[in-house]
Design goal:
The chain has 253 residues and is of the alpha/beta class. Helices cover 45% and strands 22% of the residues. It is built from twelve helices and nine strands. Helix 1 (2-25) packs across helix 2 (27-33) and helix 2 (27-33) packs across helix 3. The termini are far apart. 34% of the residues are buried.
């Protein structure tokens, strides 16, 4: 009876904590940041199996034609945020203004535009969305004129770069869109980065290497980037937790 009572109390406490988190964060934020707590181990496993039915090409096509929420225009209107500030802080004092910097999934250019405003001159961006170039030109014409952009899938562009082509490579909620079948591209990302690698991504609960969740009926692939890039020869020198994302800074070992 005492054991059952203790289990019951823990269950009630867990339920109350989840309800409190839902009220504070909202449903989408809660599901994105705490998928295991929200759905349980079986739910996560079923969700992962269901999401993996979508092919890499289907995932790419979804983001190539994305409009409205989470599109380049959406993020350009949203503008710089605390994530942008974290990136600037990570670069300050350790990266020269003429060092080459590549953003994976640059979208409407809001992060690169902030770097440009702070004097960084050698800026590059990749985005798969067909509208990204027009959005950057309209919202950040100086960035568009000075930067170099590739409007194609990361998996198609990054392998074409030479080893150590960029002093800094960073991503903000972009690598979580890479289908598990295309995980080979992480090795290429590590290869083309010469000095510093930054990730600001949703990550799994606990020690899982990969977990899949859905937002707007579309899969996001949460990964443990410390383990992935650690295995590829990168040493983590900083990490911090945001409301949703985990920000990590890596240096080459």
């Amino acid at each position: 009876m005492n054991v059952l009572s203790a289990v019951g109390k823990r269950a009630v406490a867990t339920a109350k904590a989840q309800v409190a988190a839902l009220r504070t964060d909202g449903v989408i934020t809660y599901l994105r940041s705490r998928p295991r707590a929200a759905l349980g181990s079986l739910g996560i496993a079923l969700l992962t199996l269901d999401s993996l039915r979508m092919s890499p090409t289907e995932v790419q096509n979804e983001w190539a034609g994305r409009s409205g929420h989470y599109s380049p225009e959406f993020y350009a209107e949203y503008g710089p945020d605390t994530g942008t500030e974290a990136i600037l802080e990570a670069l300050e004092g350790s990266v020269d203004t003429d060092d080459s910097i590549l953003e994976l999934g640059c979208g409407g250019g809001r992060h690169l535009a902030a770097l440009h405003d702070h004097g960084y001159e050698n800026l590059h961006g990749i985005d798969i969305n067909e509208d990204a170039g027009e959005v950057i030109e309209r919202n950040y014409p100086h960035l568009e004129a000075d930067g170099t952009f590739y409007f194609d899938a990361i998996e198609d562009v990054v392998p074409t770069f030479e080893t150590d082509a960029f002093d800094v490579v960073f991503s903000v909620e972009t690598l979580q869109h890479i289908h598990p079948d295309n995980a080979w591209v992480f090795e290429d990302i590590a290869r083309v980065t010469d000095d510093r690698l930054l990730t600001m991504e949703n990550e799994p609960d606990g020690d899982e290497l990969l977990a899949v969740t859905n937002v707007d009926d579309f899969p996001l692939y949460f990964r443990n980037w410390e383990r992935i890039f650690g295995d590829l020869g990168w040493r983590q020198v900083h990490s911090s937790e945001g409301d949703i994302d985990t920000f990590r800074v890596f240096e080459k070992q």
